[in-house]
Task: inverse folding
């Protein structure tokens, strides 16, 4: 567990985070003092609404570049990517684009501009 301090009043504990070398200065011994490049939340029935609304708005209002919501109940990943600047820019004046919804059923493959060359078939993420 690692707290991510987005502001004086907004502190979250995402399931998975990625911080690029360019943002490494936000890593402190106690927490992350700023926005990671990527945040991944794995939903459950008790966290789904919070992950899709409250946390999404917090990440969108910060400089998180990508936000992935993984829903293992329906084998879907929703990918929110920041628009209004180049990939990885994290321009806080921009917003997340409409989510890209990927599903295991459709045979989709997860990719990201943050990780060129990485391909994650949803069959492998959710099991065959």
Result:
């Amino acid at each position: 567990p690692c707290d991510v301090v987005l502001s004086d009043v907004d502190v979250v504990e995402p399931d998975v985070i990625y911080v690029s070398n360019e943002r490494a200065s936000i890593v402190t011994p106690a927490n992350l003092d700023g926005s990671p490049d990527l945040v991944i939340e794995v939903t459950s029935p008790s966290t789904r609404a919070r992950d899709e609304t409250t946390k999404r708005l917090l990440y969108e209002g910060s400089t998180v570049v990508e936000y992935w919501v993984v829903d293992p109940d329906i084998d879907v990943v929703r990918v929110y990517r920041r628009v209004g600047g180049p990939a990885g820019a994290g321009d806080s004046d921009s917003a997340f684009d409409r989510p890209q919804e990927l599903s295991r059923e459709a045979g989709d493959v997860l990719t990201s501009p943050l990780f060129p060359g990485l391909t994650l078939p949803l069959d492998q993420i959710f099991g065959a």
